[in-house]
Amino acid sequence: MDGMCLLSEISPLGASHFNPLRQAADWYGLVQADEVRELPDEQAFRDAIIQISHRATERGLTLLIRDWSHLDWVGFPFVQTPPM
Question: Does residue 37 sit within a domain?
Fold first, then answer.
């Protein structure tokens, strides 16, 4: 869609599988390759989303995030023991 910046399967729990910085770099050129980093905690994840959002806005794009919310309830292979 014109004017949109879509990131897909985005969740703090899944950042090692689908890093939003990598998607923003590869799909939209919003982040330079040397800015892509691991997102080890929720604060780093939050900071990355804010960075991407600002850069999208600077280019006149609206950031749209397709979340990966089912990670909050799924177990293997993402956690050893499924949460109760």
Answer: yes
pLDDT tens-digit profile of 24-35?
999 999 999 999
Indicate the pTM of the whole model.
Answer: 0.81
Number of domains in the chain: 1
C-alpha to C-alpha distance for 50 and 41, rounded to whole angstroms: 15
Which DSSP state fits 55?
H
| DSSP letters spanning 60-73 | T-EEEEEE-GGGGT
pLDDT, one tens digit per residue, over 40-49 is 999 999 999 9
Of 69, 57, 71, give the one whose Cα is nearest residue 28. Answer: 57
